[in-house]
Structures are given as C-alpha cells and as structure tokens.
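Lecture notes, unit on binding sites. The following record was shown on slide 14. It pairs a sequence with NAP.
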Amino acid sequence: MAYITVDDDKKLKVPNRATIGYIEGDGIGPDITKAMINVVNASIEIAYSGERSIEWEKIMAGEEAFEKTGEHLPKDSLKQIEKCVISIKGPLTTPIGQGFRSLNVTLRRQFDLYANVRPVRYFPGVPSPVTHPENMNMVVFRENTEDLYSGIEWKYDSDGAKKVRDFLSREFGISLTEDTGIGIKPMSKFKSQRLVRKAIEFAILNKRKSVTIMHKGNIMKYTEGAFKDWGYELARTEFAQQTTTEDEYLQNPDALSDKIVIKDRIADNMFQQALTRTAEYDIIAASNLNGDYISDALAAQVGGIGIAPGANIGDVFAIFEAVHGTAPKYAGMDIANPTSLILSAVMMLKHIGWTEAAEILDEGVTACYRDHRVTQDLARLMNIRALKCSEFADEIVKRMRKEKS
Ligand code: NAP
C-alpha cells in the first residue's frame, strides 16, 4: 500500500497506486459506496490505462463499528484516517436527543477540517423547481469548526445554565428568566480568515468571478459582523493584487474586469438573491450556521441534496462526503441515488490532482442525466422507469467509455 503524504509546504504527494480511506456509512451508505467505488475505478482506468489506481482501505465507523467494537468511532479508525490523509465517507446516523455527539462533527474537529466545501450546479435533465436552474453555478465555503455548532450550550434547568444566567445578571445586569436555555456563538478572527482565505484561493485557482461574504452582521455585530470585516481585511492584506471590492469594481468595471470581486450580503438578502439573481453569485464564504442553511437551499434549486456533493477540507486532511443523510427507509434496497457521493469523489480526484479521471467521471454523470437515466428519487418526478443504484453506476461507466472513445 502507498499512502498519500503531505510535504512541509502542505502539498500532497500522491503515489500512482494511492491508498484512499473509505467509510461506507449507515443506511444507504453501503449501496452508494459500492456504486461510487465502481465508477471511480473505471474513470481512473479510462484516464490512465492502468498507470494509476486506488487501493481502497475500509475504515469502520457508525453502526457497523458499534456492533463489532462497541464504539461508533473506534480509535483504530481515527488512526487509519490519519494515515490515509484523504478519505471519503457515506452518511452516518446521528440519533436525535441521545447521548453521543454527531460523528461528522467529531471528525471535523478531530482533523481540523475547517472548510466545508459544497459546489452546486445544474445538470441538464434534472427536474428543478425554478425556471432557470442553469444559472446556478456556486460553491459554498462554510466555516466548519466554530459558531453555534461549537456545542457550548446548557439546558435551561441545568446548573450550568443557572451559573451563566447568574453571571450575566451579576456582571452585566442582563436578566434572563429561569426557563431560558443558553448557547454560545464563538467566532474568531483566525478561524474566519482561514475560511475566507480558502474561498479566495479557490476562486483564483478556478478563475471564478466573485467571493460573497454572507453574514448577519447587522444584528450580531461582533460575530457575524466581524466575520465580514475580517474577510474584507484578509482580501485587502493577502490578495490585494487579485481582488477588488464591489464598490471599487462598480466605479471602474472595465479596468477591474480581471479581478475577483469581494462583496458581502446580509443572510436573508442572500437567500432571495440566490433565487432572483442567481447568475450574479459565484463563491459564497459563510459562517457555520448560515453556510449550512444556504447550501441546502441552493441545492434545492437544482434538484435537491440527493445529488449535491461535499468535502471537509483542512490544511492537511480532507474527507469527502455525501451531503444527504442515511435515508434509512431505503437501506439495503439498492435504490438510493449515489450521485452526491460520486460527485464528492469527483472533487476528491481533483483534490489529489487526478483531474483527467475527475473530468471523465463528471462527464459520465452529466451524460446519464442528459439521457434521463436516473434513480427513483428523480424518476418519480419525471414519470420514467427508475434505475437501481447499481444500474445507475453501470450506466455512468458505459457513458464514460463511450464519451472517451
Ligand atoms: P436523509 O437521510 O437525507 O433522508 C431524507 C430524505 O431525503 C429521504 O427519505 C429521501 O426522500 C431523500 N434522500 C436522501 N438521500 C437520498 C438518496 N441518496 N437517494 C434517494 N433519496 C434520498 O435525512 P434524515 O432522514 O433527516 O436523516 C437520516 C439520518 O441521517 C439521521 O440519523 C441524520 O442524523 C443522518 N444524517 C447524516 C448526515 C451525514 O452523515 N453527513 C447528513 C444528514 C443526516 P424521500 O423519502 O422523499 O424519498
């Protein structure tokens, strides 16, 4: 086995026979993972004729791990993720209101995967609730490690909540009633700026037009408002040559046409602009909660989260993942739509520099949708026969070979 490594400049070194870790996940996870591995292997074979390949290393997590080891995320699995550097995962169950923390949140914390990257674009042929879904081509960079997801919260009747209420009353004269639960929203300059940096770097690398900082700074000035200010400050200090602000751009659009425009939108406005002026938005940099909301809303405009991919990326590690959950009612039936995980694998192939395979795979998926070869989630909206999950993967492979020959 040959593991991917990271050099001192945080650049990936990827061997031709690269080991990639995979977590099947719960519910529909095993079905969609099998489909994903099938199409990824085929795309690499088509692109590199045997010169490159992936050695898939299974990593146990979730219900399967619990059954076998008594733990949902065993220490050995964490070690494997560390060793692999790059992994891909299916969805994992998070029991609501029960004792253990979301495994997804734990993984993001453990490996400092601070940027949740979610590209959203339209595939012709996919049913959409809007008139011009083809205008959508955005990538959301969502901060993944702080904000209201930090887990600093107290139930209304706990000792902790009482202590915090007493402290607020004593120190600041803020009075909260005894039935008030408390959550804390920490947002720091370092973590906000490293997220915005990743978004701007992506925009530069991919020749995108703008980065919009999404925030609710008019109300939460020292968290959301600071996120916006720190974002602009970072663009000014680290990317002065490549970026301009929207104000500067509007005054001199011809002279600044080659610059990436940094703009900001208040969160509620961002939601309506995404619907009404879709084509004017490109990369979105958002705090954790805003990013969570906007990425699902954008995905809905082009056919839903069943087909939207995602990645959790840090300076060293990256875990690519299906955006949707475990859809337990479809578990083991071979009927789920594997597109989200497959497009996440496209992102992964690009991330490790295997761009040719990524493009071939992307074209295969695009061709399937163009030809109306879809799984039941979309077939029922189109009144056509549904493919099974595994059949859909086979159809992608057929089209990859055809488009290439
Ligand atoms: P969900 O699993 O995403 O499923 C909700 C509905 O979305 C399904 O009933 C199905 O709709 C549709 N769906 C989702 N993925 C699909 C796919 N690949 N193919 C076809 N249809 C798909 O959301 P949930 O029911 O809220 O969550 C279930 C469990 O997943 C929970 O334990 C939750 O914590 C977990 N979860 C995990 C992740 C993750 O690991 N990243 C993310 C979200 C949720 P129809 O019923 O209309 O057919």
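Take-home: The CA atoms of residues 307 and 340 lie 4 Å apart.
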